[in-house]
Amino acid sequence: MNTPIVNFFDLSSNNGEPLRTDTQFGLCDDDGENHPNPAYSDIRQPEKWIATVQNPNGLGVQFYAIDKRIKIIIDGNEQSLCDGMLIFQEKLYLVELKVQRAEWINYAISQLRNTIDLLKQYHAPELAQFKSKKAYACNRKYPNFALSHAATMNRFYQETGFRLDIQATIHIK
After folding, report:
1. Can you list the residues of the chain whose pLDDT is less than 70?
2. Are 73 and 46 in contact (CB under 8 A)?
3. What CA–CA distances, in Å, run from 139 to 67, 99, 102, 135?
């Protein structure tokens, strides 16, 4: 039996995440998958940040936790979802946070792709409202963009309609 799909965009179950206007803040996921709490935004503990959000114009940015907040079971299998999304000015950025070393990019892309597929299936009207859509695979241990992933990034865009960035800095513009 399938679990009813919950609203990815429902703030009432978002652990009190504030609207961020900070020029810089971090995204954290304590202890990865072994921690029962969802990812969250933070301004006080940079040592815990897996991704850094650069917001030089102080735009209002809302972080919504997805993984560990939303559980979707399809045909008896719990779906693997990305950690969260940032929403601002008709833009949607999905974010997967990693700290691991081996095969992290493929695993992150898989979670992002699965989340996009579910959003398209259950929230197509909401997705259509966003003029810009991106997906970020972030890893504190590999913070910089690597040009060697250009083919993967292009294929991801062609298949999902979301631009893929593989880096630990998210630029809000």
Report:
1. 1-6, 11-15, 31-34, 145-147
2. no
3. 16, 5, 11, 13
Supply the pTM of this predicted model.
0.92
For position 13, what pLDDT does the model report? 66
8 A C-beta contact, residue 153 and residue 42: no
Q: What is the pLDDT of residue 105?
A: 92
- Nearest CA among 143, 167, 142, 141 for reference residue 153: 167
User: Quick one: tokens of 164?
Assistant: 């893929």
